[in-house]
Write a structure and sequence with these properties.
about 450 residues, FAD/NAD(P)-binding domain, globular, 13 helices, 7-stranded mixed β-sheet
Length: about 450
């Protein structure tokens, strides 16, 4: 008789949990997984996928305007929110089914119930206790809202995708990539939107040229960006929300959305009682193999609060499955992870920012280009693309690449491969460009930005 009911029990059927469960089962393990909310986790349901669909939708007003310069006559356009929302729901429902089928086809037993840890080898799932040799925590993160009076009147990204009536006015609070992206969606779909951020400039952690360039481009589009601004309290006045700002001013709006960070979803699932050590903000502490302080319990994804990206959670899940059931110990390399922000215009970035590179290496060489894309030579749209490369002056290694402009994520994904392979500036210089594209600018930049100019700008 087997010592445990399962070889591994996964709590949370998001991207990382699914990857770990599927491959563990493929390696011959007996696996179960539980989810009490929605199959596919944040990314599929209230994150990457619906967000990108909404970003696509929000680009159409510009596309309709630009079409005239190319000889197209477009009739009067109107936007119907329920159509977009309901079509998105159909696609998400399809993906939910795919995730469940992937697990079933791999032989993973799926529990649609809440699971909590009872002890190092026992899980309570829907009131039934089962045992497992290993328990994997993949419960993701959850939006956090500051504890201010009236916070119950605000929404988060979770509710954003299911708004009943599309608002004429909105306030987005936050300065991270989610706040920037949802501000762009609101604006593109016709909402009069204001983005508030308590700090001096948004997108902290991104390259400074990228941050300032994007802010300039958003303001050109008449997006109301306000830095060093924050809400002190929210009140409801009929159908309106009243936001009292910390500077004493007041704003009236239809929706207030907080995108002020996500916290590890580790509370009330029995971790502390089982002896699992938690860190700042409830992050589950793990070693490089994702083992917690309890040897039989592992954790991956947003709940460990390392790099909150779906592809990273997938890689972490693969490491766990390989180590436990495929005799392949490994670790995730968190360096040079390509990242996109689906702002408008979008951001693509990989490697170090200029500030990080200077802190680490001292002197660096900077190559930068700021130009109007070919498309807009006819449309006349005042949108500019920024491209930037950061080079180690002694080794010629490419330390960082950053872009703000159309399809930045698509372009930087390929450049991420080059950086992973150890590309130098000479490698880029020796590569023939694809003409005419914006991407070719990365292989034609020859003039360094004088270092004294960079210092003067700091």
């Amino acid at each position: 008789m087997a010592e445990f009911d399962y070889d591994m029990f996964v709590i949370g059927i998001g991207s990382g949990g699914v990857r770990a469960a599927r491959f563990a089962a493929n390696f011959g393990a007996k696996v179960a997984a539980a989810e009490d909310r929605y199959m596919g986790g944040t990314c599929v349901n209230v994150g990457c996928i619906p967000k990108k669909l909404f970003v696509y939708a929000s680009h159409f007003p510009h596309d309709f305007e630009d079409a005239a310069a190319y000889g197209w006559t477009v009739g009067e356009a109107s936007f119907d929110w329920p159509t977009l929302r309901d079509n998105k729901d159909k696609e998400i429902g399809r993906l939910n089914g795919i995730y469940e089928n992937m697990l079933g086809n791999a032989g993973v037993e799926v529990f649609k119930a809440r699971a909590t840890v009872v002890d190092p080898h026992t899980v309570d799932v829907g009131g039934k206790q089962v045992t497992a040799k290993y328990i994997l925590i993949a419960t993701g993160g959850w939006p956090s809202v500051p504890d201010i009076p009236g916070k119950e009147h605000a929404i988060t990204s979770n509710e954003f995708f299911h708004i009943e009536k599309w608002p004429e006015r909105a306030i987005v609070v936050g300065g991270g990539y989610i706040a920037v992206e949802l501000t762009g969606v609101f604006h593109g779909l016709g909402t009069n939107v204001t983005q508030l951020y308590r700090g001096p400039h948004f997108l902290r952690g991104f390259d400074d040229d990228v941050r300032h360039h994007l802010a300039d481009e958003m303001r050109k589009q008449k997006v109301d960006l306000r830095f060093n601004a924050n809400i002190a309290r929210i009140e409801k006045d009929g159908d309106e929300l009243v936001a009292d700002l910390e500077d004493g001013t007041q704003m009236r709006t239809d929706v207030i959305l907080y995108a002020t960070g996500r916290s590890p979803n580790s509370a009330n699932i029995g971790l502390e009682a089982a002896g699992v050590e938690l860190g700042k903000g409830g992050a589950v502490l793990v070693d490089e193999g994702f083992k917690t302080s309890v040897p039989s319990i592992y954790a991956i994804g947003d709940v460990i609060d390392r790099v909150q990206l779906t592809p990273v959670a997938l890689e972490e899940g693969m490491v766990v499955a390989n180590a436990l059931f495929n005799e392949k110990a490994g670790a995730v390399d968190y360096t040079n992870i390509p990242t996109a922000v689906f702002s408008q215009p979008s951001i693509g970035t990989v490697g170090l920012t200029e500030a990080q590179a200077r802190d680490k290496y001292g002197k660096v060489d900077i190559y930068m280009s700021d130009f109007k894309a070919l498309k807009h030579t006819l449309t006349g749209r005042d949108e500019r693309t920024l491209m930037k490369m950061i080079i180690h002056p002694e080794t010629d290694a490419v330390l960082g690449v950053h872009m703000v402009g159309p399809e930045a994520g698509e372009i930087v994904q390929g450049i991420g491969i080059a950086l992973k392979a150890g590309a130098t500036k000479a490698t880029f210089d020796a590569t023939i460009g694809i003409h005419p594209t914006s991407a070719e600018e990365f292989v034609t930049m020859r003039e360094k930005v004088p270092d004294e100019d960079r210092r003067a700008a700091e």
